[in-house]
Amino acid sequence: MAQNSTAFIRPVSLPSDRSALDHIFRVTCGESLKTEPSWTISSYLWCHPYPLLSPSTCFVLDPGNAEGPVGYILSTPNTRQFAKDWTGKYVPSLDRELLPEPNAKATDRVDEKPTQLLQLLYGDPEKALNFSYPGLVDKWPGHLHIDILPSHQGQGWGRKLIDTLLEALRAEGCNGVHLGMEAGSLGALKFYTKLGFSRYPEVLDGGVSGERGRTGGESQVIYLVKDITS
């Protein structure tokens, strides 16, 4: 497929890009999240905090018309600092009517999945940000999320977004970055491998799979890492 010549990559701009970022997340997120209220809660976990807390390492794919962004790469150069800012700056800004805190009342109103997501959002950013895996956030302190709408996939924009981000992370003094991907997405694994990412060098599921970087349980994820020193 030929690349759209009018599209370009630019820094994220708030508040004008906010609705487009949310739309991209909702279209591209995993099927297990595409029911409400999980859909909304998860967007506030894995999309909304990045442009607010780390705008210098967040970029969008702009189609060059009035439609708004059709892709994004959202990142932070320092996951530990990001977790602190999440608790100190992001959580206080959340709308409690839209996103009820996970207390007894909230538990009565939502089912198990949304309650778990709310617990991550309000009370456990370190779990949401992969602190439980030895060395991941220390050896590869940056992390990223990248999503592109189907209309602009397969045109080389993923590589361009990654390259743009890596340059910005280096400028911030970040020497390594990690990401998580669905374990069954062989196409994504091939894409990231071509860009120099490799599996996190630990077995994470107790040896069940025998695969480095792969978690166990229902939602299996493969963690990939990349050194980005100049």
From TrEMBL:
GO MF terms held by the record: acyltransferase activity, transferring groups other than amino-acyl groups
Top-level division of the source organism's lineage: Eukaryota
InterPro entries (UniProt xref): Acyl_CoA_acyltransferase (IPR016181), Glycosyl_Hydrolase_84 (IPR051822), GNAT_dom (IPR000182)
N-acetyltransferase domain mapped to chain residues: 77-229
Pfam families given in the database record: Acetyltransf_1
PANTHER family: O-GLCNACASE (PTHR13170), PROTEIN O-GLCNACASE (PTHR13170:SF16)
Protein name: N-acetyltransferase domain-containing protein
